[in-house]
Amino acid sequence: MSSLQAAKAAVLSFRTRFETFELTDMRQAAEAHCDPQFLWRGVHPFLEINGYDGVIDDFWRPLSRAFSNLQRREDIFFAGSNNASGGNGEWVCSMGHFCGLFDEDFLSIPRSGRLANLRYAEFFRVEDGQLCEGALFVDMIGLMDDAGCY
């Protein structure tokens, strides 16, 4: 298996367990697949979070509470090597939509009670089978517009 295929397999293995959105599974998946020094970057108001426990508590748990039956609908999934700026490792990219019923307020965006499709682009840097760094960009403006929140 090539290193790029191995990086994609590591991300898929992590997500398979993580995306049950059960707190225990999320924490166990992060512990098994993420470097203890994991660094995550997200859109405002999340910005940078060190350690996957913070990512779970600050982003994923509130998101999964706000959207019933949350699921990922992936359109694009690929990997590539990057050594720019002295960096190492393979990066895995996923793009698509998170879909779910917008049943509870998320941040200060009022619930719509309808199906929401939240566009995303997610990136993971993988080294030696461990997720070391990640970034998740979600279309908060699109979600606000869909909810009629201006």
Can you give me a brief rundown of this structure?
With 150 residues, the protein is α+β, with helices and mostly antiparallel strands. It contains four helices and six strands.
Order of helices and strands: HHEEHEEEEH
Helix count, DSSP H or I runs of 4 or more residues: 4
Please mark out the parts with pLDDT under 50 across 5 or more consecutive residues, or reply none: none
Largest sheet: 6 strands, mixed
Q: Numbering strands along the chain, what is their spatial order in the largest sheet?
A: 2-1-6-5-4-3
Number of strands: 6
Mean pLDDT: 93
SS-based class: alpha+beta
Radius of gyration: 15 Å
Keywords:
globular; single chain; 150 residues; 4 helices; alpha+beta; 6-stranded mixed sheet
Can you walk me through this structure?
- The protein has 150 residues and is an alpha+beta fold.
- Helix content is 33%, strand content 41%.
- It is built from 4 helices and 6 strands; from the N terminus they run ααββαββββα.
- The chain has helices spanning 3-18, 23-33, 52-66, 140-146; strands at 34-42, 48-50, 67-81, 90-102, 115-127, 130-138.
- Strands 2-1-6-5-4-3 form a 6-stranded mixed sheet.
- The termini are far apart.
Topology:
Blueprint: H1 3-18, H2 23-33, E1 34-42, E2 48-50, H3 52-66, E3 67-81, E4 90-102, E5 115-127, E6 130-138, H4 140-146
Parallel strand pairs: 1-6
Antiparallel strand pairs: 1-2, 3-4, 4-5, 5-6
Helix pairs in contact: 1-2, 2-3
